[in-house]
Amino acid sequence: MKVISILNQKGGVGKTTLSINLAAALKSAGHSVLLVDADPQGSSMDWAAAREDEPLFSVVGCAKPTIHKTVADIGAGKDFVIIDGAPRVTDLARSCIMASDLVLIPVQPSPYDIWASQEIVDLIKEAGVFKPELQAAFVINRKIPNTAIGRDIKDALTEFDLPVLETTIGQRVIFAESAASGISVMEQDAKSQAAMEITMLAQDILNLLESEK
Ligand SMILES: Nc1ncnc2c1ncn2[C@@H]1O[C@H](COP(=O)(O)OP(=O)(O)OP(=O)(O)O)[C@@H](O)[C@H]1O
Ligand SMILES: [Mg+2]
């Protein structure tokens, strides 16, 4: 079992959007997946509740700072546990980090997001002392093509000394449209750019986990 947390102390960067779609992409690649909603706001649970079709994977709520102790039991038998993190709450973030093999940090191409990333990076570095095998990477979300800030963000993130995934996720309305009916972007439109980007993101993550630290 591999545990991937999607974390950022900043709100609204795409943690839930990427958690759901990454879980769906790993599932359709043939892996068994559990999605853990670690945000008291319960957005992943809301997504699952909006769905009319059979669930693609189970979604369970666990917004407690003991998740690092319970994850092995909750996720027993699954290939992947994806944890959708909460913004702001430090003890929850710490617990999610300690539960994880890989922490993904969504970041939008905006200086506010870049500055605000410092907080989660500090928590990851702190945890790395106890957990040297822990992997972490940034994923650029809501990129708008042909903008200077979209091009420059990768450079701006180098100061944090963590890898930035090659695949970036564009700003696309299909992410909100598909969420409204509790489906993934692949289900909404398998040929969409968003579906292709999410599939590539899942592949990047599998490669990263295979490379280990
Ligand atoms: N790539 C994208 N393109 C367009 N809209 C997006 C994209 N990613 C996220 N969004 C939208 O941005 C908003 C915030 O996204 P989301 O809820 O996934 O962020 P979050 O980090 O989970 O927020 P919170 O911190 O409140 O949990 C949502 O309305 C979502 O539909
Ligand atoms: Mg969320």
Topology:
Blueprint: E1 2-6, H1 15-28, E2 33-37, H2 43-49, E3 58-61, H3 67-74, E4 80-84, H4 90-99, E5 102-107, H5 111-128, E6 135-140, H6 148-157, H7 174-180, H8 185-188, H9 193-211
Parallel strand pairs: 1-4, 1-5, 2-3, 2-4, 5-6
Bound molecules: adenosine-5'-triphosphate (ATP) and magnesium ion.
* Strand element count: 6
Give every kind of bound small molecule, once each.
Answer: adenosine-5'-triphosphate, magnesium ion
- Based on CA atoms alone, the radius of gyration comes out at 16 Å
Sum up the overall morphology in one term.
globular
Number of helices: 9
Mean pLDDT, all residues: 96
**Lateral strand order in the biggest sheet:** 3-2-4-1-5-6
* Proportion of strand residues: 5-15%
CATH H-tier superfamily = P-loop containing nucleotide triphosphate hydrolases
- Spatial separation of the terminal alpha carbons: 17 Å
Number of domains: 1
Question: What's the helical proportion of residues?
Answer: 40-55%
- For the record, what CATH class applies? Alpha Beta
Low-pLDDT windows of residues? none
Largest sheet: 6 strands, parallel
Helix-strand category: alpha/beta
Q: What CATH architecture do you see?
A: 3-Layer(aba) Sandwich
Order of helices and strands: EHEHEHEHEHEHHHH
CATH topology tier name? Rossmann fold
